[in-house]
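> call design_seq(struct)
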């Protein structure tokens, strides 16, 4: 029990060492693999990894949770201040778990969800939401490749969903949440904003904030927020009890206290002035890269970017996204392939 990792399991130690070298020697351009701070890493690997604290602060099912309570309460208060939310649940293990919990809290089996399908948890055919709910999709305008709010309104009025989901994994443009609120009100639907990709920009004031408009907001903490891998749910007070019960006991057991501690640290870091400077630099870098790629003859979906994302259309380059990602990795640049709007080719 007291042996070091190297002494206890040299194989795992050696693989971790190689992964460390890989990360040091490559440039990763995948948002979900952003680099957390040393403090966040220390919390993730702390003594809290063995702390089981089923329940919520003050209402645990185990004894010895006084310090777990302190940590979770601190994470919640920091998150409420950072995100300007009335209620925050920091226990979700991931963004997917956060979204599943929202569906559990608000919907009945067979209810209709209107989403873009930009993330698996938004209703992909291989996922639980697709088997439990009726999924209707909206898209982007074929010419501009941007959100078409009038078309989304038309689809919403045709199907009258119980829940509308706004959010994407590969949308490089600004999202205006006000029209979404109007559309949701017109069809009497709940509005869920999944801002996992842009939450760092939102907290820095560099992207419109969904909190004043959405009934519920979900996010991850590992992308532009630069925290540990995990999820967060922000909601109005009227949904607090439903959301908390949907996380525990409905869809999760004990929370990962080491990750909640790391989330608390990440919320503190995101409230510091230098975090806004960092987010501004992220956008500047993305725009400069977009400009350079277009000057070199590459077509970007929607013609550029407003955030940290670039979606390159390779259909005229005689190379697939998978092949391009492989070649880039060989050059020390780590990316991921993705689908583009209206692509008729099968996923490579």
């Amino acid at each position: 029990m007291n042996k070091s990792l190297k002494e206890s399991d040299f194989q795992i130690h050696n693989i971790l060492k190689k992964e460390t070298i890989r990360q040091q020697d490559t440039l990763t351009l995948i948002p979900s693999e952003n680099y957390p701070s040393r403090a966040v890493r220390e919390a993730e690997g702390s003594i809290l990894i063995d702390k089981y604290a089923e329940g919520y602060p003050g209402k645990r099912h185990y004894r010895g949770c006084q310090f777990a309570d302190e940590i979770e309460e601190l994470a919640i208060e920091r998150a409420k201040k950072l995100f300007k939310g009335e209620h925050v649940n920091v226990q979700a293990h991931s963004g997917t778990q956060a979204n599943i919990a929202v569906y559990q809290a608000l919907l009945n089996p067979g209810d209709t969800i209107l989403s873009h399908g930009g993330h698996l948890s938004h209703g992909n055919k291989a996922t639980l939401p697709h088997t439990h709910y009726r999924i209707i999709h909206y898209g982007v305008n074929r010419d501009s490749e941007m959100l078409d709010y009038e078309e989304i309104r038309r689809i919403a009025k045709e199907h009258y969903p119980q829940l509308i989901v706004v959010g994407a994994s590969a949308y490089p443009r600004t999202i205006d949440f006000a029209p979404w609120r109007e559309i949701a009100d017109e069809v009497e639907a709940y509005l869920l904003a999944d801002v996992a990709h842009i939450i760092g920009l939102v907290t820095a004031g560099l992207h419109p904030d969904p909190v004043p408009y959405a009934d519920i907001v979900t996010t991850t903490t590992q992308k532009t927020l630069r925290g540990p891998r995990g999820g967060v749910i922000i909601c109005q007070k009227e949904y607090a009890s439903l959301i908390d019960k949907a996380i525990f006991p409905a869809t999760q057991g004990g929370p990962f206290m080491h990750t909640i501690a790391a989330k608390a640290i990440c919320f503190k870091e995101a409230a510091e002035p230098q975090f806004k400077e960092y987010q501004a630099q992220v956008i500047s870098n993305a725009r400069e890269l977009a400009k350079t790629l277009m000057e070199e003859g590459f077509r970007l979906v929607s013609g550029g970017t407003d955030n940290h994302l670039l979606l390159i259309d390779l259909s005229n380059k005689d190379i697939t996204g998978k092949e391009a990602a492989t070649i880039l990795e060989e050059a020390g640049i780590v990316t991921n392939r993705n689908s583009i709007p209206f692509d008729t080719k099968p996923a490579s």
